[in-house]
């Protein structure tokens, strides 16, 4: 087995496809989600907030929900950074051609 066989191939990302909102506006309104938190990860935040409320915000409870929400936020951040890099590269290329 060669050393290259253990290396995973690069992951192809679809930067042009915007993520899909899973939580509806009505769900977010019913769960009294503040406007600034109504993003692509709102569907993870709703159960996290409910769990925190039910468990009096005990830090050792709701770890799975918190981790899922933070992972969603991180993945969204990475997606936006890939998109921003792509836009900067396109702008630099257009500037070079002009």
What would you say this structure looks like, in words?
The chain is mainly α and 98 residues long. It has one domain. Helix content is 55%, strand content 0%. It contains three helices and no strands. It is elongated. The N and C termini lie far apart (49 Å). The relative contact order is 0.11. InterPro entries: NDUB7. It is found in: Mitochondrion inner membrane; Mitochondrion intermembrane space. Keywords: Disulfide bond, Electron transport, Membrane, Mitochondrion, Mitochondrion inner membrane, Respiratory chain, Transport, Ubiquinone.
What structural category characterises the helix and strand content? mainly alpha
The count of domains is 1
| Termini separation | 49 Å
Helix content: 55-70%
Compact description:
Belongs to the complex I NDUFB7 subunit family. With 98 residues, the chain is mainly alpha-helical. It has one domain (25-97).
Keywords:
elongated, mainly alpha, 98 residues
Compile the SSE list and pairings.
Elements: H1 25-30, H2 42-54, H3 63-97
Helix pairs in contact: 2-3
Organism: Thamnocephalis sphaerospora
Keywords: Disulfide bond, Electron transport, Membrane, Mitochondrion, Mitochondrion inner membrane, Respiratory chain, Transport, Ubiquinone
Protein name: NADH dehydrogenase [ubiquinone] 1 beta subcomplex subunit 7
